[in-house]
Amino acid sequence: MKIAVSTNKGGVLKTSITTNLAGVFAKEGKKVLIVDTDNQGNCYVSFGGNPDTLKSSIYDVLVNGHEIDKTIVSVHENIDLLPANDDMAFFEFDVLADRNKFPKPFSLIQSHLKMIEDRYDCILFDTPPNLGLVQGNVLSYVDNVLIPFQPESYSMRSLIKIIKAIHDFKEQTNKQLSILGVVATLVDSRTTLHSEIITECRKYCLQQNIKMFDVVIPRSVRFASSVAFERLPATLSADAKAQIVQNYFELYEEIKELI
Question: From the CB of residue 38, how many other CB atoms can be counted at a distance below 10 Å?
């Protein structure tokens, strides 16, 4: 199972979804690998790490030939992480500037991950908020894309663009690629605007034969406080009864029905 949490918009909880779903999978006894491809390196931060101290990152594996086994970090029981840091900001330039060294620039992640994928029940990708070479590498490898959707003005326009891009990529590069579904994030149920936009999104997804998950991820300080004080994603924190934790377990159950 290879899932990318992806959209072309920043600040919509991609990292939170990736790490919290990893926590749920791990609690269900699944062996999980998180692959962070965003130069902010926040997946490592979510588990109490500092990306600036890494001796090797996903950039070094893909560009400098570092051994992937020596780069992967165990961050929790049943959860490993292939971490990222600021070096990933240079990935596209460094790879595309040397086509002799990298004749297949969109296959770098695939060529390295396929050597270890059998060790894991699930591989989850956190991705940057754009559709460049990094995103192309991820979409060349994964089977499914989970799209976070923040219900704000102009969000529908952004959603339509990412769905079209995924469909185009499927036709041209990865025939196995599918949209797992769309999940609403940072939702404030008290606002009429959010309710109206979510309704509009559900209607659009229905027309496009795309799953929109019933569960929504609300706007909550639980994400930040869990990482700041417990140095863990919320689904791995002590407060298992918190509503935000329950939301992720509900999302997991919906995902299970699709895969």
Answer: 23
